[in-house]
Structures are given as structure tokens and as C-alpha cells.
Amino acid sequence: MTSSALDYSALAAKIKTWGRELGFQQVGVADTDLSAAEKRLRAWLKDGFHGEMDYMARHGTKRSRPDELVPGTLRVISVRMDYLPEERTAVRERLQDPAAAFISRYVLGRDYHKVLRRRLQQLAGRVAAEIGPFGYRVFVDSAPVLEKPLAAKAGLGWIGKHTNLINRKAGSMFFLGEIYTDVPLPTDAETSDHCGSCTACIDVCPTRAIVAPYRLDARRCISYLTIELRGQIPEEFRPAIGNRIYGCDDCQLVCPWNRYARLTEEADFMPRHGLDVAGLIELFHWDEATFLHRTEGSAIRRIGYECWIRNVAVALGNAPPPIEVLETLASRMDDPSPLIREHVRWALQRNRSRGKPALVADSPAR
């Protein structure tokens, strides 16, 4: 079929139908003009808010100019897929148990990168079957792509004050993925911002990482500290990390729009290996072989064993100090890893102390 004979509006409608059939809750189409987002990105990088995430600045304007990343790109097909595996009340209960290991709910199941990428490839395959070969490339948080601004332009939601994408009917607990394509599909209308005067996400952040509405200093964010940061976690943030050993869901749990968040329909996103109910002491006793086995096929594995134990040590330092916690921490005082030893020493000192250090959350935002 020649391009001149294509009914692009009809094709876009089919793509959305096929997307829903493949398990995406929503599909939208955006153009490639990200000039406003590019200005925000430049300001964010200039302020150093990306911390040690050097890759955020490594690709120049390819991140904000899709045609530079994939020459010929005219449109971006953006999709979202719900991931919440349990009710928010259950998530809060887990977070409030200091002996429990809290892991951000998006990562409890199979690696979402692989799940969404496979579905997007299938979606592209259906398009090819309909119109013949066409130019495209699939992305799932795996390349220099401004996925949230693109999703917002595609009408999937708006970027909230916590910098996550929010959908009025589904909250924010969903994954995003993209197909860059040279097919000139009609674009969808953007959604207006509905955060209003609400500051719940800003107020609840344990480390005051949301330094202003729509401004996140990643260097203070628990997700960055427990996932992206490979060295020592700054001591000023350790008490506020609490029992969070991989990521942080606080700003999403408190968002009023997440009362509409829907439980996932994907079996792949359901918790595996009991990580949704694991205790800190249990996880601290894992050796590297156990870590690799229990995180096989999971995005958790990307942080590596050393950072995993580092994170659990900090959480144990924040746990109530029964003798078992102290004995557990002491078992790694001579760990071969200097990184682990340093965090274990801090955790033991904190746990033995009867005083209560001021939490970062009680200090003014910087």
C-alpha cells in the first residue's frame, strides 16, 4: 500500500485497538517537538540535579530531539501499562513495618523492560502486516528518550509536581513505552494539568527531594540513592530512608489521583520470590548466589549485590534494635567490601544509640 493511499486516521485507531488487545491500558500519538521539555532538561542538568547519572547529559540533544536519535522519526506512539500488584493500603502497611524490607512496587515482578518491549514489537508487527515495511524503533526506558514529556504530548496524562506522569482515570502507577516511527499519524491532544494547589507529594517526601513543584533533585531522592548511586549513601539521608531498600513510592501513595490507580492485569508484574513480604534480616543473610537467583529476570538485579546489601544495612540501622538485628549486622563487620563495611558500621552505631538524630525530613528544603 502506498503512503498516499493510507488512511492515517483509520490506522491510528487500529493501532490503539491493537495496543489494548496487547495489554496496554492506553495508546497515544505525539509529534516530535520537545523544545519546552528540552529547556527544562537543560536547566535540570545545569543545577546538577542528575547527580551521578552522567548518561542524562551524555547524548546531547538526542534525548529531546527524536529525529536525531532515530533519523526520519515523525511521530512517537506512546503506551502505558498498569503495574500496581496490590491495594495501596497494603503497600502503606508494609512501608510502616520497620522490620519489613520495602521494595518499590513497580519492580516486584518480571523486568518490565522486557515485558513492554516484547508487546511493543508485537504492536509494530501488526502495523507492518497492515501497511507493509515501515521505519520504527521500540524503546522502554532503555535509551535517551524523554518518555514522560512524550507521553504527556500523546495525551496519556500530565507531569505532576513529583515529576511522574499522572492520568486522571488511572493515577500514576504504570509503565511507559514508545515506538518511534516515520509514519505521519494524526497526533492526540495533550491533557491539562490537574495538580491544582495540592502539595501532598512535596510534603511527604522523606528527604525533601521535590525542591519545588515539578522540580526534583535526584541527589536527594531515595530512588536515586538506593538504585542509581553506586557509592556511599550520604549519612544525612540514611535515617530518612527508613526500611526502603529499593526505590520509594511515597509521593505516589499520597497522590490523590492514585485513588483511581488500577491493579495490574499482568501476571508478569505480580510479586516473585516473596519479595513483597520479605524481612530485612532475611535479605541481609543472602549471599551473592542467592541474590542472583532470587532476582533472575528482575530489574532489581541491575543494582548488584554490593549495593543491595548496602541498602539493607541502612534499613537495619533504622530498624528497632532487638539483639537479632545487632547480631545480624555484626555478622558483616568484616565483609570484604569496604562499601558494605562502612554502612554496617553506621547501622550498628545508629542502632546502639539511644538518641534520635534529627531526620532529613525535618530540615528545610535546599
Helix-strand layout with pairing:
Elements: H1 8-21, E1 26-30, H2 35-46, H3 55-58, H4 66-69, E2 75-82, H5 88-95, E3 102-103, H6 112-131, E4 136-139, H7 147-153, E5 158-159, E6 165-166, E7 174-181, H8 200-204, E8 210-212, E9 215-216, H9 222-228, H10 238-241, E10 244-246, H11 250-253, H12 280-284, H13 288-294, H14 304-317, H15 323-330, H16 338-352
Parallel strand pairs: 3-10
Antiparallel strand pairs: 1-2, 2-7, 4-7, 5-6, 8-9
Give the beta-strand count.
10
Describe the strand arrangement of the main beta sheet, using strand numbers.
1-2-7-4
* Structure annotation, total helices: 16
As for the number of domains, it is: 2
Uncertain segments: 354-366
User: What helical percentage do the residues reach?
Assistant: 25-40%
Subunit organisation of the chains: single chain
Q: What class would the helix/strand composition place it in? A: alpha+beta
Distance between the ends: 58 Å
What is the residue-averaged pLDDT? 94
Your description of this structure?
By secondary structure, the protein is of the alpha+beta class. It has two domains: 3-85 and 111-181, no CATH class; 200-362, no CATH class. Helix content is 38%, strand content 11%. It contains 16 helices and ten strands. It has helices at residues 8-21, 35-46, 55-58, 66-69, 88-95, 112-131, 147-153, 200-204, 222-228, 238-241, 250-253, 280-284, 288-294, 304-317, 323-330, 338-352, and strands spanning 26-30, 75-82, 102-103, 136-139, 158-159, 165-166, 174-181, 210-212, 215-216, 244-246. It has a four-stranded antiparallel sheet, with helices on both faces. Helix 1 runs antiparallel to helix 6 and helix 14 (304-317) runs parallel beside helix 16 (338-352). The longest helix has 20 residues, at 112-131. The chain is elongated, with a radius of gyration of 22 Å. 42% of the residues are buried. The model is unreliable at 354-366 (pLDDT under 50).
